[in-house]
Structures are given as C-alpha cells and as structure tokens.
Design brief:
The chain is built from six helices and four strands. The protein is mainly α. The N and C termini lie far apart (about 50 Å).
C-alpha cells in the first residue's frame, strides 16, 4: 500500500488527536505545534469543543469495523467541513493538497484533511488498518502500516513488550510448579 507523505502526516495527527487528553491546559496549542498545522489563529473554548466533536467522529470511524458505516460517517464529516481541495506550497513545503477552505477553523481543517485521509484508506480497502491497541489496559488508536497487517499494539516497546514479559513470567511460573 502506498501512502503519500501528506496522508501519513494527517493519519499521524488523527491518531495523536484520538489518544491525547484534551483536558490538559494548552493541549490544543501543543497539538497544532506538534503537527505543524498552518493558518490557525488564536484558539478558544469553542475551538476545543469543536475539535472534541471531530475527535469523537474520528473515533467512530476507527471503531465501526463496517466499511459502509465508515463511508457514511466520512461523507458526512467531509461534507460538513466544506471541503475545498486546493494545491499549495506554503511554509517551505513542496506542492501538496489541502482539503479545507482558506480561513477554516481548526476543527474544519481536521475534519476535511483527516476525513480525506481516512477516505483514501477506505477506498484502497485498507480500513482494517485502523486499530485499537489490544493490551487490556490500553485501547489507544493506531494505524497499522505493517506489510502483513499484523500489528496488535500501539507501541511494541511499551504495551507489546509488557504483555510479552507477563506471558513469559506466567510460563516460567507454570514450569516451576
């Protein structure tokens, strides 16, 4: 599966949005900075509420498991965002496509670009790559970009390793009895 740089960056931002705590002061500003989101003015309480709503809709796409339901969710999300594809080469980046209208709010920006990135996965028949961590106490979102679609944990060094160590210790206890 070929995912271009812009789509990959947008998928990364969706995953970050799904997994972050939006109750932390300045969380939204940090998110905008981490993902180098351009043309965002001062953010207020209404922006936070709108982004929380968009995050919930992305979560529904991740959790549905049904392509038709995901398509309906994405169609509504992208339509409501007023998607306006346009080519741009701002801030030293090469030519790429933005799907949000100039002057769009952060939530509209996320809905348009994020909705389109998820739509590209759906069109390619790759919706099953949208996953939740299988660690019992985690459930964080991630996009499985492994070749064989075998990734089970949000981070193999934390959740995956923790479960593998626990299984190893359980086996060792079993052989000691």
């Amino acid at each position: 599966m070929l995912i271009n740089h812009d789509t990959r960056c947008t998928l990364d931002s969706i995953v970050d949005l799904l997994n972050m705590d939006l109750d932390v002061p300045d969380a939204l500003e940090g998110f905008v900075e981490r993902h180098d989101i351009s043309n965002v003015g001062p953010l207020g309480a209404s922006d936070l509420a709108a982004v929380r709503s968009i995050r919930e809709r992305f979560a529904q796409v991740f959790d549905t498991g049904d392509t038709r339901a995901a398509a309906e969710l994405l169609n509504a999300l992208v339509a409501e965002a007023g998607t306006t594809p346009r080519l741009t080469d701002h801030d030293g980046y090469d030519w790429h496509v933005h799907y949000f209208a100039p002057g769009a709010s952060l939530a509209e920006h996320l809905a348009a670009d994020g909705g389109m990135a998820l739509a590209f996965l759906l069109v390619e028949g790759e919706l099953e790559r949208l996953r939740r961590c299988e660690a019992p106490d985690c459930g964080r979102a991630f996009v499985d970009l492994s070749r064989n679609r075998s990734r089970r944990y949000c981070d193999g060094r934390t959740c995956g390793n923790r479960l593998h160590v626990a299984a190893y210790r359980a086996r060792r206890r079993g052989t000691a009895d």
